Amino acid sequence: MREPSPEYPTPPASLPASGAAEQPVEIWSGRATNRVQWLLAAGGVACIALGVELAVDSTWTSGIAPLVMSVVGCLAAGILVLFGTLAFVHVAVRVEGDCLEVRCGHIGLPRRTIRLDHVVGADFVPRVTPRQWGGWGYRWRPEIGTAVVVRRGEGVALKLGDGRVFTVTVDDAEAAVRVIRDRLRLRGTGKAAGV
To answer: What distance in Å separates the CA atoms of residue 111 and residue 143, rounded to the nearest whole number?
Structure first.
């Protein structure tokens, strides 16, 4: 065993070796991906390409108004489909400090941050389906709550202090629920029955 040098003395046994606080800051992150969305995004690109093709190489003899409406319609539909699908190709969930953050797509929009002091419980949901929420994406159903659904499978359901529920599909959702419940226990904000 190496002797401690004068430049780097061994810390006393009563102090933590790193000098860190008692509770280390734990960060949990996970994500869920839906590659099927890329096929739908290709449909959006096809609509945009059709709009550009109509604008550039048009031989319509029925007038300018139908041509403009067709071009604008194709471009608008393509952009909406493209953004709507790429925004939900994947979702990233991060639990850090006193917040849970959900970011969708490659640019992180839509985004939602939930403070853990507004959460009263967290549950593992073994099967979240787009069908129960009315499709993929950012969903709201008054009888169920709000959800970010990018694929079928496991997810996390947060019970909020105002009675609402927020659900998100994420891989390794059981680990996320454990981390959230531990944070709630440390804060003393979780209900005994739900946490």
So the answer is: 22
CA 6 to each of CA 11, 15, 19, 119: distance values in angstroms, whole numbers, following the listed order: 12, 18, 18, 50
Q: How far apart are CA 36 and CA 98, in angstroms?
A: 34
Q: In 3-state terms, the chain is what percent helix, strand and coil (to 5)? A: 35, 30, 35
Closest CA to 104 of 94, 95, 96: 94
Contacts of 106 (CB under 8 A, 6+ apart): 86, 89
What is the per-residue pLDDT across 27-38, written as a single tens digit (0 to 9) for each? 899 999 887 777
Q: Give the global pTM.
A: 0.69
Which tokens go with 78?
Answer: 């393509």
92-151 pLDDT, tens digit each? 999 998 899 999 887 778 899 999 999 999 999 999 998 999 888 889 998 889 999 999
For 26, 70, 80, 96, 144, the CA distances from 176, given in Å and listed in that order, are 12, 47, 32, 11, 21
Type and span of the H or E element at 2: none
